[in-house]
Design a protein that fits this description.
This protein is α+β, with helices and mostly antiparallel strands and about 140 residues long. Helix content is about 20%, strand content about 35%. α1 packs across α2.
Length: about 140
């Protein structure tokens, strides 16, 4: 079954308030800001985990613009795994290259069908209009 990721992100955006965080404590999901070093996100079982965050973008980008990009990258990264329940996000890095292009790099843990845990790194390209494209995943 193929999911429309833009529809998923749109539903997530309408489900939550437009503030920087979904809640004010460590028990709820948060969206990082450019000054954040970590944020909270749900793993495959719905448990809140801390995700390391690095923001390496030199241009000024509003939180309103970044919010749907971050959400899209995080949601799409879960669907890279065959066993989506084993999804554990570990790190998200947003980078701006010298040519002014933008990339998102997310590192996740997941289990294969035999129960062995492995790390996957996914590379995304994005623009400031909210278009996010998976480049590769290893």
């Amino acid at each position: 079954m193929k999911f429309n990721h833009k529809l998923i992100v749109a539903l997530l955006l309408t489900s939550f308030s437009l503030t920087n965080t979904f809640a004010q404590n460590d028990k709820e999901m948060t969206i990082p800001t450019s000054s954040s070093t970590e944020f909270n996100w749900k793993d495959g079982y719905g448990k809140i985990v801390k995700v390391d965050f690095s923001y390496l973008i030199t241009d000024t980008v509003s939180q309103k613009t970044l919010r749907p990009i971050i959400m899209t990258i995080m949601v799409q990264s879960q669907y890279l795994l065959k066993n989506k329940l084993s999804y554990v996000p570990r790190k998200l890095t947003l980078v701006q290259a010298e040519d002014k292009s933008f990339s998102g790099i997310v590192t996740i843990l997941g289990k294969n069908s035999y129960g062995a845990e492995s790390e996957t790194t996914a590379y995304y390209s994005f623009d400031l209009e909210g278009n996010v494209v998976l480049i590769s995943a290893k």
